[in-house]
Structure formats: structure tokens, C-alpha cells
Sequence to fold (67 residues):
Amino acid sequence: MTDYEGLGTPGVHTYIVGLTEGKAMLDAVLAAQQLPGGDVRTNAPVGLVGYSQGGSAAGLAAQLGSS
Fold:
């Protein structure tokens, strides 16, 4: 689960800023794949789900995933 870039720090919050939301969600997937003792293969299919701002992040992560 991601808290998104900039939350709780000075400056404008990244609410509904697609590039940062999508990248944050993809970073969470990459982190899960690298957990010691984890069983998440790097070539396994990935499902993305979100609610509210998380739905936006999931959609944008899907768009960015191939790049």
C-alpha cells in the first residue's frame, strides 16, 4: 500500500496527479517482488486495484506498466 509522494510534507499534495500516482503503485509492485523470502515472481501477472484516489493510481499504473 502506498501513501503517495509528498503526503504530509510541505507543498502541494499530488492528489490525482497521474504520473506520480502510477509510479508509486508500480514501485509497490517492484518492492513486493524483491522482498526476502517472498514468493512473487518478476514474470507473474500483476493485478492492480484501488478505491477513490487508489482507483486513479491503478488505472495510471496500468498505462505506465509496459514502460
Remarks:
- The mean pLDDT is 82.
- The longest helix spans residues 18-33.
